[in-house]
Amino acid sequence: MSQVWNFSAGPAALPPPVLERAQRELLDWNGSGASVMEQSHRGKRFIAMAERVEADLRELLAIPADYAVLFLQGGATQHFAQIPMNLAGEGDSADYVVNGHWGAKAAGEAAPYVRVNVAASSQADNYLRLPPRESWQLDPRAAYVHYTPNETIHGVEYHDVPVVGDVPLVADMSSNILSEPLDVSRFGLIYAGAQKNIGPSGLVLMIVRRDLLERSSRPMARIFRYAEHAAAASMLNTPNTWGWYLAGLTFEWLKEQGGVAAMGERNRAKAEKLYAAIDGSGGYYRNPVDPAARSRMNVPFTLHDSALDADFLKESEAAGLMALKGHKALGGMRASLYNAVPLAAVDALVAFMGDFARRHG
Amino acid sequence: MSQVWNFSAGPAALPPPVLERAQRELLDWNGSGASVMEQSHRGKRFIAMAERVEADLRELLAIPADYAVLFLQGGATQHFAQIPMNLAGEGDSADYVVNGHWGAKAAGEAAPYVRVNVAASSQADNYLRLPPRESWQLDPRAAYVHYTPNETIHGVEYHDVPVVGDVPLVADMSSNILSEPLDVSRFGLIYAGAQKNIGPSGLVLMIVRRDLLERSSRPMARIFRYAEHAAAASMLNTPNTWGWYLAGLTFEWLKEQGGVAAMGERNRAKAEKLYAAIDGSGGYYRNPVDPAARSRMNVPFTLHDSALDADFLKESEAAGLMALKGHKALGGMRASLYNAVPLAAVDALVAFMGDFARRHG
């Protein structure tokens, strides 16, 4: 096949060396004579791998010892509900800063379990800018403050961690985890669906300060309690073993690439190149987001005439540029530039965009 | 590598042609130029595949049109809790027939959400027989009756579907789904973790009568509501796309093998051969289960002298017989004989057992 560059928002591109290794090992993993998918999660081989994967992640993000790392299921959406179940007592309130589709969804799914206080929202701006920190109406008695550091659909991203005092800060980092260095100690809980910067879908990574695990005494099944998952090293029940394995291959690849510092530089260079092409197109292409809030991970853009959208999609796909169709909330196109998307993919996209503009005037 | 036979209780052996195809297609699925793991679940290619997988399952089990098929996450354990959330109103009770470890766990996880009535239990028999149907104390007003048709740890299995009147029958078929023909219309809800007879872990298959989907009006997050998953064709949020794909390859393989009728015959022959070897060993090997309740899927057995267990495990592994260590509840050994384990694997195990008995007297 000819070269394909995958700009999918998720499930998204994985690093080619990760896929190639998964392919090589698929029938005979680790000398076992069987696939990694056929291994008991309670077996010595799998447990040794699982521990190594956690250690690699701890090294990549310099995760302090008082934080637990969990490998869970259900997608970030399930944890929109499970986080208040675990972090808030009955009658508690929690602050939600809503700066895009996913933040709004997180608040909605939390509502049956906690009094949701929308402390700030940029909905009136169609989520194309961030609510300024000084406008946030935080409640110092809130169980936690939830926000979405990068919004996949609207293409907005915080470039600093907001200061929220002593209330634990909870962040849905599904679309920007591991894309740059991170000071984990600033957060109470970080969670991320794996299918953008980590591995295949069906796995959720969580990093949580251990003292928060015992907060809720409300009745619930053990399977919903993060403290139980932590005590069982994420093997309270059978985990997504393939996802865990793939995440581990990605973490090894990240270490070989120079870690999150190197990825941060690459991701900045990729985004700058694409935004420069959009901004330098004389209005042919346009990104609607406040420049101060532009995402490095997800770049939505429109054509000056939406009647050209269908041609753009057809021709870009024929040129090996995959999954550029934008979300219906913004229309037009979206290029997602996660860790596994190399600068060469952005170069190819930028070249195609210039060529398309010349040909379609 | 030399031939390895995998008797793991789960995650368990997958059919070699399924693994080989997954390996071939891993870098370039369906002519897309990218892996199936890198496809958007909202893309045309993935949706077409997902629909075909459901159609194949409907054909294999002759699922009536008034049943929804769901592809979920969280393992069967999460659904121990989610089933009462969805099928019982506040204050309702549900009947649990407990005939092994997993049935007891299902009742425990349900307790925060429904009044659990243990209608029958074989705990006093250490779960080595089934509670006779005439002993079940069923409540005709119960929201549902829950049981576990095959218990993976204790190796007991129902060989008929119990008659329970008009109350919906709910079955955890994690370890015997698709192992023989099934009359779906006898059940209100069937669910199964994928990692035994379907595919990799991290996927749960559910077959549920549509009229049961709207039963519960209690407050809960949308993500926990089966009706929402059904309305969204299991794409309420990003599903486990790799698991769904692998399940589809398994279903295709099952159809090529002659479907569940052919598997039922094979599974009976495999189990009969192993039980015959155990029963014919003059007491060297022993299966502790009531012969009328013996499982075709999971065969626990002990050696006449447990001091030989370590040698048996070491030598069997060296002979390419993998994962025979029994669960600590029963000790000794356990051979799981799911669909993907061929008769040749049982032949190899029986030959090894005979040889071991001769050598170790």
From TrEMBL, chains A, B:
Domain of life: Bacteria
PANTHER family: PHOSPHOSERINE AMINOTRANSFERASE
GO cellular component: cytoplasm
Membrane-crossing segments per the record: none
Cofactor detail note: Binds 1 pyridoxal phosphate per subunit.
Function: Catalyzes the reversible conversion of 3-phosphohydroxypyruvate to phosphoserine and of 3-hydroxy-2-oxo-4-phosphonooxybutanoate to phosphohydroxythreonine.
Self-association state and partner proteins as the record states: Homodimer.
Protein name: Phosphoserine aminotransferase
Gene from which this protein is expressed: serC
Class in the EC hierarchy, top level: transferase
Residue positions where N6-(pyridoxal phosphate)lysine is found in the record: K196
The protein's required cofactors: pyridoxal 5'-phosphate
Domain Aminotransferase class V: 4-349
Main subcellular location: cytoplasm
Biological process terms in GO annotation: L-serine biosynthetic process; pyridoxine biosynthetic process
EC number(s) given by UniProt: 2.6.1.52
Pathway: Amino-acid biosynthesis; L-serine biosynthesis; L-serine from 3-phospho-D-glycerate: step 2/3; Cofactor biosynthesis; pyridoxine 5'-phosphate biosynthesis; pyridoxine 5'-phosphate from D-erythrose 4-phosphate: step 3/5
GO-annotated molecular function: O-phospho-L-serine:2-oxoglutarate aminotransferase activity; pyridoxal phosphate binding
This protein's UniProt keywords: Amino-acid biosynthesis, Aminotransferase, Cytoplasm, Pyridoxal phosphate, Pyridoxine biosynthesis, Serine biosynthesis, Transferase
NCBIfam families recorded: PRK05355.1, serC_1
Record-stated family: Belongs to the class-V pyridoxal-phosphate-dependent aminotransferase family. SerC subfamily.
Residue positions binding pyridoxal 5'-phosphate: A76, T77, W102, T152, D172, Q195, N237, T238
Residues that bind L-glutamate: R42
Reactions it catalyzes: O-phospho-L-serine + 2-oxoglutarate = 3-phosphooxypyruvate + L-glutamate; 4-(phosphooxy)-L-threonine + 2-oxoglutarate = (R)-3-hydroxy-2-oxo-4-phosphooxybutanoate + L-glutamate
InterPro entries membership: Aminotrans_V_dom, Pser_aminoTfrase, PyrdxlP-dep_Trfase, PyrdxlP-dep_Trfase_major, PyrdxlP-dep_Trfase_small
Protein's cellular compartments: Cytoplasm
Naturally occurring in which organism (per UniProt): Rhodanobacter glycinis
